[in-house]
Amino acid sequence: MAAREARRMTNKTPPEGTTLFLIGMSMPRLRHPGAWLAVFLAMPRMLMYLKRNPEAGLLSGKLYVGVSIMVVSYWRSAEDIRRFAADAQAPHLPAWRWFNKRFADRNAVGIWHETYVIGEHETITSGISPWGLAEAVGAVPVGPGTKTAAQRSRHNVAEMSHSV
Predict the structure, then answer these.
(1) Are 21 and 73 in contact (CB under 8 A)?
(2) How far is CA 131 from CA 11, 33, 94, 119, 147, in A?
(3) Are 109 and 36 in contact (CB under 8 A)?
(4) CA 76 to mean position of chain CA atoms
(5) CB-neighbour burial class of residue 120 (10 A; exposed 0-12, middle 13-18, buried 19+)
(6) 11, 69, 85, 117: which could join 25 in a potential S-S bond, CB 3.0 to 4.6 Å?
(7) Is the dihedral of CA 22, 149, 136, 161 positive or negative?
(8) What is the pLDDT of residues 26-59, one digit of tens each?
(9) How many CB atoms are located within 10 Å of the residue 73 CB?
(10) Is this structure's pTM higher than 0.85?
């Protein structure tokens, strides 16, 4: 395990196209685990596959289980997400086809996702190792020009526009 970084950190400017992908699951019928357990178990398998196959484009991803179930992931690009989703050799497409045949539009288990190509943004961590975007693309100490949220946001937008 990496040593914990106690100082304030912000993300390195991500490469153009870096994408945040959120995906979650809801279980409207908890009493019917057959309707949601297989869907839930598919996600850790996909994350393990993506971590073993970095060429697929995942930069980092974490599964969160609470009132809702969600994965927060960062990718090289939205196109990498689409390519992974359509790859018959990867675990997503067979699972998606199975879900659609068995559960789509039946109110037994729900799936949602959102895709955001990173643009204007700011990240801060303090007292923990880099998390989220800073973990995905790297972190740098907060310093002159990045001490406030507005400065970090302006810095990231300026850096991204210079890389175009």
Answers:
(1) yes
(2) 9, 32, 31, 18, 18
(3) yes
(4) 11
(5) exposed
(6) 69
(7) positive
(8) 777 677 777 778 888 888 999 999 999 999 999 9
(9) 23
(10) no
